[in-house]
Design goal:
Layout (H helix, E strand, L loop, with lengths): L2 E6 L7 H14 L4 E6 L1 H4 L6 H17 L7 E5 L5 H10 L4 H5 L2 H9 L5 H15 L5 E3 L5 H17 L9 E3 L34 H9 L17 H14 L3 H7 L5 H27 L3 H28 L4
Helix pairs in contact: 3-12, 4-7, 4-13, 7-8, 9-12, 10-11, 10-12
The protein binds adenosine monophosphate and tryptophan.
Length: 327
């Protein structure tokens, strides 16, 4: 069985975009792969974090994973910072990665321009991600388009280190980009992706939003003056986004959604989208409350740490020995 590994950063509240674009895929893949799912808290601190807020976000994300259907019996679920071998391996891999390769990463270029002052961790972030992946001999890494370049870097590192020491130290990972995964856009500005960090929260649906808020946000979503429910992202980005949301959550194709609402007006269509989102999120919210207040999360993490540290330690020791870090 192929091994799959992926994680999200515990930064801010999880959006409908994260659910449709990432978490739902994880739930699907757990049936097919030996699946490792983690909370990338060490990646979160590459940007300034408030400690109390970060702690809260870590637990929230774990409860969201479980509430969305990530099953503790089908996945190894863990917290990145608890497994110290990731960062240890990362240090060694940093010493085997040319500086120029990291300054060329698109995400580094974007984020370093956005912040006046930024940490060195922002530069070495993709090497830590490579460690997360390579330490478990991961075959498949489900990620969004924006992280594809980082998986490429992990492959380059694996290949270079294997060649340098003339040994199969690391397995070559492949990025797994869902073929029918949809990019969900902001409801107010449908030319931009729906994102945790958007300034106007009215354009973003968070998984834990109240039914009332979901309804309000969708009813006020930006549309156009054309009146037809047709998928045309260039000319009708707002309506196309709502069609995408409906299609993703109903498992109807885009053209089936168009057909279903061909005689509806925008108001009726929006109301149907809102009800579908509410119905989808209701059981998630209920389960979230249950997990949030239980010790289940701690049991799951203890087990995750136990399982992952054994595997990770072996890989770490192997590279350590190979590099001559030994007495
Ligand atoms: P982020 O919240 O940007 O850290 O993204 C974490 C994961 O969620 C990535 O795999 C993204 O591809 C996915 N994701 C985030 N926002 C969206 C969105 N608006 N539509 C689809 N997928 C998304
Ligand atoms: N960098 C990823 C993100 O921001 C999170 C992440 C960290 C990750 N390590 C990973 C994803 C390893 C997949 C595999 O979304």
């Amino acid at each position: 069985m192929k091994r799959m590994l992926t994680g999200l950063q515990p930064t801010g509240e999880i959006t409908l975009g994260n659910y449709i674009g990432a978490i739902r895929q994880m739930v699907e893949y757990q049936e097919k792969y030996d699946s490792f799912i983690f909370v990338a808290d060490m990646h979160a601190i590459t940007i300034e974090q408030d400690p109390a807020e970060l702690k809260k976000n870590i637990r929230n994300l774990l409860a969201i994973y479980l509430a969305c259907g990530i099953d503790k019996d089908k996945n190894t679920i863990f917290l990145q910072s608890e497994n110290v071998y990731h960062a240890n391996l990362s240090w060694m891999l940093e010493c085997l990665t040319p500086y120029g390769e990291l300054t060329r990463m698109t995400q580094f270029k974007d984020k370093s321009q956005k912040h006046k002052s930024f940490s060195s961790g922002l530069l070495t972030y993709p090497v830590l991600m490579a460690s997360d992946i390579l330490i478990y001999d991961t075959d498949l890494v489900p990620v969004g388009q924006d992280q594809k370049q980082h998986v490429e870097l992990a492959r380059n590192i694996a290949d270079r280190v294997n060649k340098k020491y003339n040994k199969e130290l690391f397995t070559m990972p492949d990025a797994l980009i869902g073929t029918n995964s949809k990019k969900i856009m902001d409801l107010i500005d449908p030319t931009h992706k729906m994102s945790k960090s958007s300034e106007n929260k009215n354009g973003v649906i968070f998984l834990l939003d109240s039914d009332e808020d979901i309804r309000k946000k969708i009813m006020r979503a930006t549309t156009d003056s054309d009146m037809s429910i047709k998928f045309d992202p260039d000319n009708k980005p707002g309506i196309s986004n709502l069609i995408n949301i409906y299609s993703a959550l109903s498992n109807l194709s885009v053209s089936e959604v168009e057909e279903k609402f061909k005689d509806s007006n925008y108001g009726t269509f929006k109301a149907s989208v809102a009800e579908l989102v509410i119905d989808t999120l209701r059981p998630i919210k209920e389960k979230y409350e249950m997990y949030q207040n239980s010790s289940k999360i701690d049991e799951i993490l203890d087990n995750g740490l136990n399982v992952t540290s054994k595997i990770a330690r072996e890989k770490y020791e192997l590279l350590k020995q190979t590099m001559g870090l030994t007495r």
